[in-house]
Design goal:
With 177 residues, this protein is mainly alpha-helical. It is built from seven helices and no strands. The chain has one domain. The chain is 74% helix and 0% strand. The termini are close together.
């Protein structure tokens, strides 16, 4: 049960840290992440949601609730208005659940689902901005200049952080089942 679990404290703290690191790493490595014509988007917050889904076990973290909260905070913090993230984070949590029911849990299926999640998140973000006229980038330019480097960076994050996050969740859920 989530209310009695260590995850009650650990999950929101980890979510805050990942959210903070997304912005901080983008600022610190701006010359690397955003060198024309490329734009690489750090998605550690999304990584935290996907990993939490795979490692929560029987605890059942209210991921959709946290996804809405994270979306509100991301929208207000980064743009000053409620925008896309309030819808995209919960949508990706839902997509993760749908995809995970089709596969047996393993490292490879987790990385595949995360890959699909990041691609869907970035594509929907691009599509919305293209529809309202914020960007005029072609789909080919988007795939080459934004999506490819973003997927590469976030897959590196996944590989590097998979086992440490797994260990944290195992510790937090130990004795809870």
């Amino acid at each position: 049960m989530y209310r009695l679990s260590r995850l009650r404290y650990l999950f929101p703290i980890g979510l805050f840290i990942m959210f903070f690191l997304d912005g901080s790493l983008s600022k610190i490595f701006a010359s690397f992440f955003f060198s024309y014509p490329y734009a690489t988007v750090s998605q550690l917050t999304l990584l935290w949601f996907v990993m939490a889904y795979f490692f929560e076990g029987d605890i059942q973290i209210p991921l959709t609730f946290f996804a809405v909260i994270a979306g509100v905070v991301a929208d207000v913090y980064y743009s000053g208005i409620l925008g896309l993230f309030i819808f995209l984070y919960p949508l990706i949590v839902w997509l993760t659940r749908v995809l995970a029911h089709s596969f047996n849990p393993s490292f490879l299926t987790s990385i595949l689902i995360f890959f699909i999640d990041v691609a869907a998140f970035e594509f929907l973000n691009y599509l919305a901005y293209n529809i309202v006229g914020v960007t005029t980038m072609s789909i080919v330019d988007f795939v080459v200049d934004v999506l490819t480097p973003t997927l590469a960076l976030n897959l590196v994050y996944f590989v590097v952080l998979y086992w440490p996050i797994s260990a944290i969740f195992k510790w937090a859920t130990k004795g809870e089942n």
